[in-house]
Specification:
Layout: E1 5-9, H1 11-14, H2 17-23, E2 32-35, E3 41-51, E4 54-63, E5 67-72, E6 77-83, E7 88-92, E8 98-101, E9 105-110, E10 115-120, E11 125-134, H3 135-142, H4 152-156, E12 161-165, H5 168-178, H6 184-210, H7 220-235, H8 243-249, H9 254-265, H10 269-287, H11 292-298, H12 304-315, H13 319-325
Antiparallel strand pairs: 1-5, 2-3, 3-4, 4-11, 5-10, 6-9, 6-11, 7-8, 7-10, 9-12
Helix pairs in contact: 5-6, 5-10, 7-9, 8-9
């Protein structure tokens, strides 16, 4: 894949290997793992060529000085970017159009070969993961999804990018990518599998909001209310409302809610809540900031035995073992 051309705007960086790596190294068709020199801060830039036409980029840096990066991304490619550090912003040089991505957001971007400028602020964590695909590779992966309302505009070229919140299941995969336990060829095989898993889960998360409806007899109003119900659960997953409260909140009968939810999303309301709780628990354990007990309480469990059993049923491992394993 033709790589982007980078330029660094910083007096110290311009006269160092840091500038050489960013401006020239990324243009070479090879894997890169570059540790940031101490005089600039700490962290790394990394690129892994997972397969022909599929590249994985990781950036996790804290800079001592502000750095301006100019890049020209190759036309005919698409970026899936997941921001997990401070908000990122950049500007298209020719048009002056401003773009931004908040922490916890992700987007699909259609690259058009124009020059972009991004300023990295000092003293803050810039952390994102990006998957870049050539157009034919994206079409191979999304075959069957291309008629979905949410993705069709970007494929048709009518919009440049689509932005969404990062779902909990995606956060888990991102953490697994970042903490890859393998090296050399095994690492490449592992990361290639994880990148495909990332894209499939991302597409299916969005598909579950729209795609299943095509095969149902639900009315437009019922679809809208079921999506509201799903969002209500997602936003209150630690202490979700009861089925009766959800039904009242979205103006559906309990019977219509339970039947329609299963028809639209392939899961009962109860199963969806339980699975979402466990996905959130796994994501919190991955962060290694809380004990198992604290994680259980954070997602609404007061009985640790019930929490452990539910976690084991979902992932095949006890939460304590999972925490220590990671």
């Amino acid at each position: 894949m033709k790589q982007p051309c980078y330029k660094i705007k910083n007096n110290i960086a311009e006269a160092s290997s840091f500038h050489d790596m960013i401006s020239a190294g990324y243009s070479e068709n090879q894997d890169i793992h570059y540790l940031l020199p101490h005089e600039f801060g700490r962290g790394y830039w990394k690129r892994t060529i997972c397969a022909e036409g599929i590249d994985l980029y990781l950036m996790d840096v804290i800079l001592k000085e502000e750095i301006s990066m100019e890049s020209v991304t190759p036309a005919g490619t698409y970026d899936f970017t997941f921001c997990q550090g401070i908000p990122e912003c950049w500007r298209a040089y020719q048009t002056g159009k401003q773009y931004g991505l908040k922490s916890g957001e992700c987007y699909i971007h259609r690259n058009n070969g124009i020059r972009n400028i991004c300023v990295l602020q000092p003293g803050q964590r810039h952390y994102n993961i990006r998957v870049r695909l050539e157009e034919d590779k994206l079409w191979d992966i999304i075959r069957g999804f291309e008629r979905q309302i949410w993705v069709k505009p970007i494929l048709d070229g009518n919009v440049e990018y689509l932005m969404h919140d990062i779902p909990p299941r995606i956060r888990v995969i991102l953490q697994e990518i970042e903490s890859c336990p393998y090296h050399e060829n095994f690492a490449k095989i592992y990361l290639n599998a994880k990148v495909h898993e990332l894209l499939v889960v991302y597409l299916c998360e969005k598909f579950s909001e729209t795609g299943h409806f095509a095969a149902t007899a639900l009315t437009y109003g019922e679809r809208h209310r079921l999506l509201q119900a799903k969002r209500l659960i997602d936003e209150t997953i630690a202490t979700p409302p009861t089925i009766s409260e959800i039904a009242k909140g979205v103006f559906l009968s309990e019977t219509k809610l339970k039947k329609g939810f299963k028809e639209a999303f392939g899961s009962t309301v109860y199963s969806y809540i339980k699975d979402r709780k466990m996905d959130e628990a796994r994501s919190l354990l991955e962060e290694k900031r809380w004990s198992v007990t604290e994680v259980a309480y954070r997602i609404g469990y007061t009985n640790l035995s019930h929490f452990a059993r539910s976690f084991r049923e979902r992932f095949g491992i006890n939460p304590n073992e999972y925490l220590n394993k990671k």
